[in-house]
Amino acid sequence: MGRGLKTENRPQRPAKRAADPEMAANRRLLLKREARLRRFGYDSRVGIQFVLAQALPLGGKVLEVGTGKGRFLIRLARHVKAVVSVDVSAEEQRCARLNARNAGVERKIQFVLRDARRLPWANETFDAAVTMNAMHHIANFGQVLREMLRVVKPGGKIVLADFSPRGFQIIARAHRDEGRTHPREFYDFRALAQTLRKRGLATRLRKGANQEVLIGRLPAAAA
């Protein structure tokens, strides 16, 4: 908005400079966390690349469930026209927004603070709905999946990705080393694939070293 109006942009520049130290500090924390996970055997860059290799292409407007720190979101935004990212944590979305700004993709992303079990959009709003490494944080994911299916257009994609058993072991070890526990709701991807097929979706299930990915494509609209 207002890209061509220089007089409107000038007052915003001091605010942008003031935010830079926070953005840089947030970036340092993210890189430190990623380096720590790599020492335990999980590289988020490899995981994201694996998921995107299975999921792409994703056209049009995409819904992401589970913003987190924005690692996957940022990479996703580089491949699609627009992304709406939903999360229940304002703190996580603030971190993700700073990371997206640092990566130069913030303009392509709309952040929405919302429980994904009750999405505010009408039926068939999005061309695809995706989630990566968030399912295990969500109780009653079946409700979220129903909402994802509701808001995706005929012929669109559902992408469900989470850690593999080995990936969960790595993340659990990293958390224990910090004196924390890693919450985990367990979902069987084969059972999820069966659920999607019962709804008429064509499915593909792929397993990597640390990730599992389920792709479902909704039936096309009747001619």
Can you offer a commentary on this structure?
This protein has one domain (6-217): Rossmann fold (3-Layer(aba) Sandwich), CATH 3.40.50.150. The chain has a 7-stranded mixed sheet, sandwiched between helices. The protein is 44% helix and 22% strand. The chain is built from 8 helices and 7 strands, in the order αααβαβαββαβααββ. It has 223 residues and is α/β, with parallel strands linked by helices.
Characteristics:
single chain, 223 residues, alpha/beta, Rossmann fold, 7-stranded mixed beta sheet, 44% helix, globular, disordered N terminus
Question: Secondary-structure blueprint of this entry?
Answer:
Blueprint (H helix, E strand, L loop, with lengths): L5 H4 L3 H28 L3 H12 L5 E5 L5 H7 L4 E6 L2 H14 L5 E5 L12 E7 L8 H11 E12 L1 H13 L11 H10 L3 E6 L3 E7 L6
Parallel strand pairs: 1-2, 1-4, 2-3, 4-5
Antiparallel strand pairs: 5-7, 6-7
Q: How many structural domains are formed by the residues?
A: 1
Main structural class: alpha/beta
* Biggest β-sheet strands, sense, barrel: 7 strands, mixed
Helix content: 40-55%
Mean pLDDT: 88
CA radius of gyration: 18 Å
**Largest beta sheet: what is the strand line-up?**
3-2-1-4-5-7-6
CATH top-level class: Alpha Beta
Strand content: 15-25%
Element string (H = helix, E = strand):
HHHEHEHEEHEHHEE
CATH topology: Rossmann fold
Named at the architecture level, the CATH assignment is: 3-Layer(aba) Sandwich
Oligomer: single chain
Tally of separate helices: 8
Uncertain parts: 1-18
User: Please, what is the CATH homologous superfamily?
Assistant: Vaccinia Virus protein VP39
Termini separation comes to 38 Å
